[in-house]
Write a structure and sequence with these properties.
2 domains, Aspartate Aminotransferase, domain 1, alpha/beta, globular, Aspartate Aminotransferase, domain 2, binds pyridoxal-5'-phosphate, five-stranded mixed sheet, 14 helices
Length: 389
């Protein structure tokens, strides 16, 4: 039987059963694997055999997780990491050399920004930012040493949409490696490889886990690229633990259901927030007032679970709003079953100075909401009540 639908593959793509005939994949909590004899050992290390040797290299649970995400993304293969940042760092470290240049969207995840600005200069790797919505004239930003183009879409926390198809064509025309951090959209809502991405990265900590339990990361793409990344990963050690891989692979079984509901709830809240008199603006990719609504609809199945809005009255009003929240959690995570409220200017993006914050759409009164799976009317009641404060 051909298992071609997303939901079916998410559930039926399983590693081989053991001799016990278990229905659900067991956890393989083992650091190493045994060999039959000296020849088996030699051939295994020579990679003449495809088998598990040591869990830093591979493990049945991580293989199942990788196979699922790769299938969902339309990728040939992947490598799993202990965290999303582990995946991002290893991907850059594998493909960049000293002296290379990275062209990146300005609004990147905070720690990715820190990589570009604090650590890459140590290795003489430079980077140039461009705005998510201004991709018409990128050619002048390319240098002879430019190696890759890096984007997140929707961006965090500004929720701008990057036109993946046009950037894919641009990257191809200039022979640049096109890398997409697809964390906000998940493989269910958006598949960047279909638009020309060479490598797709996820922090599995967010919607893939979906319940705020474990950290994990993954990079998927073409076999030749993944082979190089795999060798870097197995020698440098940021491997995903088998336990976390098991949790994350189980989570993927329900990804479509959870993300559908996250998106429904988020759209419900976005419309309520938009209609509220104490809100200056709200941004959500699938609101018709989003400046890139048409593009969002073209490249995403639904709008995701993150909403950004600004409370009237600046920093003080934003902080009063947060202090009046009762049900939602004040936390820096996102993509959890619990609705989470963050104040980017003083937390996740506090490392950026004010002009850099404004350049990525962060104002003092801006609130980022990661809409969870509670009943939407309860989420809204909490927000509406806090807006009265
Ligand atoms: C959280 C996040 C990361 C980093 O993932 P960790 O698992 O926390 O290391 C990278 N990119 C985006 C867009 C994220 O939201």
């Amino acid at each position: 039987m051909k298992k071609d639908k997303f939901e079916t593959k998410a559930i039926r793509n399983q590693i081989e059963r053991s001799q016990y005939g278990e229905h659900s994949t067991p956890m393989y909590l083992t650091s190493s694997f045994i060999f039959d004899d000296a020849e088996d050992m030699r051939a295994s290390f020579a990679e003449e055999k495809h088998r598990n040797i040591y869990s830093r290299f591979s493990n049945p649970n991580t293989s199942e997780f990788i196979n699922k995400v790769a299938q969902m993304e339309g990728a040939e293969d992947g490598v799993a990491f202990a965290t999303g940042m582990g995946a991002i760092f290893a991907t850059f470290a594998t493909f960049l050399n000293a002296g290379d240049h990275v062209l990146s969207v300005r609004a990147v995840f905070g720690s990715t920004h820190t990589l570009f600005t604090k650590y890459f200069p140590k290795w003489n790797i430079s980077s140039t930012y461009f705005n998510a919505t201004e991709i018409d004239n990128l050619a002048p930003l390319i240098q002879p040493t430019t190696k890759c183009i890096y984007v997140e879409s929707p961006t965090n926390p500004g929720l701008d949409i990057v036109d993946l198809e046009r950037l894919g064509q641009f990257a191809k025309a200039h022979q640049l490696l096109f890398i997409v951090d697809n964390c906000f959209a998940t493989p269910y809502l958006q598949q960047p490889i279909a638009f020309g991405a060479d490598l797709v990265i996820h922090s599995a900590t967010k919607l893939i886990d979906g319940q705020g339990r474990v950290l994990g990361g993954i990079t998927v793409g073409k076999k030749e690229l993944i082979r190089e990344l795999y060798l870097f990963a197995r020698n440098t050690g940021a491997s995903l633990s088998p336990f976390n891989a098991w949790v994350l692979s189980k989570s993927l079984e329900t990804l479509s259901l959870r993300v559908d509901r996250h998106c429904e709830n988020a759209l419900f809240i976005a419309k309520k927030v938009e209609a509220h008199p104490r809100i200056n603006w709200v941004k959500y990719p699938f609101l018709s007032t989003h400046p890139q609504y048409e593009l969002a609809k073209k490249q995403m199945k639904a709008g995701g679970n993150i909403i950004a809005f600004e409370v009237e009255g600046g920093l003080e009003a934003g902080q009063r709003f947060i202090n009046a929240i009762r049900l939602c959690s004040l936390s820096s995570n996102l993509g959890d079953s619990r609705t989470i409220i963050t104040h980017p200017a003083t937390t996740t993006h506090s490392k950026l100075d004010e002009s850099d914050q404004l350049a990525v759409g962060i104002t003092n009164g801006m609130i980022r909401l990661s809409v969870g799976l509670e009943h939407p009317t309860d989420i809204w009641a909490d927000i509406e009540n806090a807006l009265k404060s």
